[in-house]
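pasting for ref. prot 1 ->
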Amino acid sequence: MNQSPFQGERVLFVTGRLAEPALRRIARTLEKDFGVTTAIQVLPISVAALMTPEWIARHLDVPDHCDRVIIPGYCDGDLSPLRAIAPVPVVAGPRDLRRLPELFGGESEPVPLDDWSIEIIAEINEAPRLEIDTIIRLAEKYRGDGADVIDVGCLPGAVWNEVATAVGELVSRGFRVSIDSLQPAEIRPAVEAGAELVLSVNASNRRAAADWNCEVVVIPDMPDNWLQMSETVEYLAARGVSLRIDPILEPVGFGFAASLARYMEARRVWPDAPMMMGIGNLTELSDVDSAGVNFLLLAICEELRIGSVLTTEVINWARTSVRECDIARRLVRAAVHGKTPPKNLDDRLVCLRDPRLVEFSEEELAELAREIRDHNYRIAVSGGQLHLLGGGERWSDKDAFALFESLLKDGGKNMDASHAFYLGYEMCKATIARQLGKQYEQDEALRWGHLTVDEVSHCRLGRKRSRRSGRPT
């Protein structure tokens, strides 16, 4: 058992309804690790962060056997209204529940992200138009990014005579394969070559599906035709065909909200049936970066117990969808299973802006300008401006060109072609950081979440900087 300043105390935690499950789990750990006795009082509010000390004081009931009250960290203002009614010390905990062990003298509770429940099916779009080598290369990429199954996407209205060759090549290399076609003449050779899943089956091909001896995905003939979809499900189930249900996700502007409602209705009608969601209709057909869209769709799948998603990477803004789905499925699993918001767990899907921003104050910049006497110029981004420091001086401007002109006008030292090129490169990065609200660290790559590409440092400062604070030294 760890030593704690609260050891032996009886601690009352105050929280809201949403945080209760996570807090109870952490409280059990605190009792085991730090020798405290815990109780939890859930006040009549969903979000604990919305509480104020005055509001808590009107609802709090401190039991006689309590030694300390810990309230949510967002209530860290004036606690006098609480201290006036509580006969024991009242303290604000951390804003993140997972950091509660730190208050007791321990370490934050780690959240494992090695668990997931959603299978990723990655489609190779229009596979009949591709060479076998290209199909294999795409399959290898998708598998490396987290795909569990490689889907061979066929062309509507045509039969691909080489489908068995392509599927056989993939299977021989250890890939799990699905075939995306409605044509029985295309599906049968693919299944015989090793495809384990057929996308898709409806009233047009369900009779043939009974003889394929593999799992199939049932779709409606028309998105809102529940009757025919139910008939297909019943037809296949009666013949022992393993199946998944996909009510079809529609693009925005073509019934997106209604299609989400169909997934919820399908889960109600078939509470235990495996389900799939094809998410490309949203990621590929919306002018928006795919990371956030993939996260939200996989969150819906996790909550509705939809066990697989079909994604693709055709349009440029969705070209990393498979990797995004792999990250997202771990985040949503941890959130739903652990009853905790998916915040501060894994920031790899925060691509455009950074999770947090640390800037220098005006006083710190002035102090740095006085301290840095050499002419190996330091660059900082703060207060919406670029700052150049060196030789005991500081130049500031929003425009990198104007900043450089000011430096040259003041007779900037050590300004050979190589150094000028270096400063131009770094100020370009600093400009991007200023525009997007990103953290700029001189001689380090800008962070783009899972898209970050580390760069080789060409540091011309002559001395190292603190990696933790980013402060030039």
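and prot 2 ->
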Amino acid sequence: MNWLSKFLTGIHKRTVWTLVFFTGAASAQGLLEKPDVERGRVIATQVCAACHGVDGNIASEVYPKLAGQHADYLYKQLVDYKVAAGASKSARSNLIMAGFAAALSEQDAKNVSAYFASQKSTPGFAHDREKVALGQKIWRGGIADKGVPACAACHGPTGAGIPTQYPHLAGQAQAYTIAQMQAFQEGSRSNSIQMQTIAARLSAAEIQAVADYIAGLR
């Protein structure tokens, strides 16, 4: 087990009891009709901040930037970390996130999703000018001979996305985007057949280029 795995496992053990407390409190109070952003802030501060930052703006590219992401999309991802009834595995595979998601009530999953959605995303930056040029070409026009559609067709010209179905990508960490595209290729992330198909048609260099372009989108 490397240092990162030990660190994350430690976080998981320390915070699962906090999550149990939140879930129990939600059950006692009954489900809310609307997401409680303040309650989401408390959960984010106590549970999520170590990896995602208090406001969803991460310091490490290993973790996704959650600030400004669509609440419905965030909620769906939390659901996808759980094994659905009748399924043999979850649609998204991540041991640490599976533990967090399982400990959250449905209401608190909505609360914390609404909180991160309400936060302002800080700008990201591209790393390689040559890669950005290729990334921009794929983002705007796709790759016709590979059957790869333009990323902008679903995620928008500026990476704003569409709630639930297509995430907000502008400014997302390059390393995280690359990791997710690889997960789609390998099948460890299977909650979007569309993205699995697209990722399978892209080379490593093309994925890196698109990820770098995304990081600098505003």
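Residues 1-32 have pLDDT under 50 and may be disordered.
The chain is about 55% helix and 0% strand.
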